[in-house]
Amino acid sequence: MFEAMTMADRMMVLHEGISQQIGVPLDVYNHPNNTFVASFIGSPPMNLVEAKVSENTLFLNYERAIRFSNSSLLLPKQVIVGVRPEHIHLVPSQDEYFIATVANVEVLGAETLVTF
């Protein structure tokens, strides 16, 4: 997949013979049309977590509340939040954070893959 994304001007993601998304590779990566595309494009794949929405607050795993500033968004009561691994950073405990239990740590040379 990486080779196709670096070589192509446009790409199509198929699932069971049905086109899921067509577009410029970077647009497909940054704005996937559905959860299949989100989890298929990228290595490691995007983390997908179900969440509940109440007004301007996102509730993840029934324990973590994240507030967002744009309260004018009309969101459904339940959503799937997608986060790319490269957008997750370790922060001091006083900053905004998300608690997760580490399930596996895999050292891959210059990178370390942490699964939670």
Automatic annotation (TrEMBL):
Keywords: Cell membrane, Membrane, Translocase
The keyword Translocase appears for this protein: yes
Organism: Parageobacillus galactosidasius
UniProt cross-references to SUPFAM superfamilies, sorted A to Z: MOP-like, P-loop containing nucleoside triphosphate hydrolases
Protein known as: MalK-like OB fold domain-containing protein
Lineage: Bacteria, Bacillati, Bacillota, Bacilli, Bacillales
PANTHER family (alphabetical): MALTODEXTRIN IMPORT ATP-BINDING PROTEIN MSMX, TREHALOSE IMPORT ATP-BINDING PROTEIN SUGC
InterPro entries per record: ABC_transpr_MalK/UgpC-like (IPR047641), Mo/tungstate-bd_C_term_dom (IPR008995), OB_MalK-like (IPR040582), P-loop_NTPase (IPR027417)
Span of domain MalK-like OB fold: 42-88
Molecular function terms, GO-annotated: ATP hydrolysis activity
Any single GO CC term annotated in Swiss-Prot or TrEMBL for this entry: ATP-binding cassette (ABC) transporter complex, substrate-binding subunit-containing
